[in-house]
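Running this now, will post back.
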Amino acid sequence: MIDILNYIIGEDDKSKYPFLPEVGKQMTGRNIQDFLNSELPILENAKDRIIYSLKNGTSPEFDETIEMKTISKYSFPIAMLLVRSTNQSYLISRFALAESRRVEDILHNENPDVIPQIFKTILNVKLSQSKDINEESNVTSEFLVKNRFKYKISLSDYLSRSISLPKNQWRLVNRSVSSGYVFLTQDELITLLREEIYQMIRSKIEELKIPPALLEDESMKSTLEQILKVAPRPPKAKIQVFSGEYPPCVAKAIEMIQKGDQVPHSGKFLMTTFLLRAGKTVDDVIDMYPTNLGFNQNITRYQVEHIAGLKGGGTKYDVPSCSTMKMKDFCYKTDACGTIKNPLQFNGKTPVKKNGRKNS
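Update: finished.
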């Protein structure tokens, strides 16, 4: 049995999860050029990794030889550098999504004892194995085994993550709860955290600073050209990004979503409420979220229908005010906004009428 508290990330873990800080520590102090010119085909593997990911929607599997594990471990950060160097949000999103799907597949078959340490390291999520709480009076070993519950997560952590999951199984009344914790199977845990895995990988890519000299490297330039030559193009927007009717904040949210940029909840909420109030249907709004950029259509539909008042308590949510968007740091005011107090007033639209509706 592995001692979870003292579990040490091993070389196998580093090749499977190359975004772990332990891999970064191994690269610290080493020149990127050393990896590009290595006798191992690290740069070639990074290129193949990207192209496969962009074409297939998931990253390739690698064989289990020691050499291949080393190549896989170091090709990932080089691949991140390459993707970041394209400066194309669409490609960054596609690659991050592909890598997150590869990680999901591995986690489904991962040693249950290792998973708490992995999630604590990459997402700072604290988990406990259900076998550690058998002494609780209302939880028996037989119950845990029968339901395949392997983990528990705090109630607050569960609620903040499950709110966007539409299936009835995620409603708290349908979950097994004890002493402030919610029980989960291994597959349920991965589903609960899958979006955070994607966002974590994407953030790591976007935070990279590319040394100018690296872009002048002939091998890098040649590799980038090969990637861009076969990379898929972003999908065309189904609705015009800015027609003169959308206020700048809404136009920005639409543009970011369709480019695959990270959009805060406030931006998505603003766009959804505005479009619904402007006469768009639920299906029109759902079509704004490209499924090939990681947006799950079922989850999106649930969220949009909830905002439209078709789910939950039936409350129709109002378009947030300009002051609210400023507070949430999603205001893109221009001279055309004038002195409006709500995005609905843009271009002479009538002020918002509350009518018992609810703001975000």
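The radius of gyration is 23 Å. More later if anyone needs it.
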